């Protein structure tokens, strides 16, 4: 799945960086980006399509922010218990039948823990479909009050992911493509997580690092952990 990044978005990640940021094994991220070959019950080899957007197949930075966003949502869906065998056909339907590109990064995508859902916007002519949810696989309607689990860590703008808060940290760490080239950043100060951790790894005390960066000691200790 290859597509250019949105204009003005400088962030670009290697597969390893993207895996670390969204907190999944590198092999899992690689399969999402490249697809993989597997043997089916018929004994034949089959290949799966890529699920996240990349800009190429090289070893360098090839994952744009939209691809990182897709990977983050995939990781969240898996954590919510949505099996991959339901995710893949749903994405295919969205792309093939509805013409939706980068559907995983869209604000209209939801999950109830069992199905991948597509939200009908107000543009639909049928009033019964407005603000309701359709199960992508079979078109069955599911209403908003069914949806309790939601990706609260995501901020959207103009219908697509604009910012991600990383839940694996015990302090407010965000990924914003327009701040620090999309690297994990301490939201309150705009300081890269890696800059703090590198100084801690070099043996500097958490107190000194907190003082130099004008951070709360609790935030530095959270990153040290």
SSE arrangement, N to C: EHHEEEHHEEEEEEEEEHHH
What share of the residues lie within helices?
25-40%
Which regions contain 5 or more consecutive residues with pLDDT less than 50? 1-8, 146-150
Kindly provide the radius of gyration, computed on alpha-carbon positions and rounded to a whole number of angstroms: 19 Å
Share of β-strand residues: 15-25%
Q: Distance N terminus to C terminus?
A: 36 Å
Globally, the shape reads: globular
Total domain units: 1
What's the main sheet like?
5 strands, antiparallel
Q: Spatial order of the strands in the main sheet? A: 9-10-11-12-13
Description:
The two termini are 36 Å apart. Helix content is 31%, strand content 17%. Mean pLDDT is 83; it is low at 1-8 and 146-150. The strands form 4 sheets. The chain has a 5-stranded antiparallel β-sheet with strand order 9-10-11-12-13. The protein has a 4-stranded antiparallel β-sheet with strand order 5-6-7-8, with helices on one face. The relative contact order is 0.11. The protein is an alpha+beta fold and 225 residues long. The radius of gyration is 19 Å and the shape is globular. The chain has one domain (12-187). It contains 7 helices and 13 strands. The chain has helices at 15-22, 26-34, 65-79, 84-96, 193-201, 206-213, 217-224, and strands at residues 12-13, 37-39, 45-47, 63-64, 109-111, 116-119, 133-135, 141-142, 154-157, 160-165, 173-175, 185-186, 191-192. A hairpin with a 5-residue loop joins strand 2 (37-39) and strand 3 (45-47).
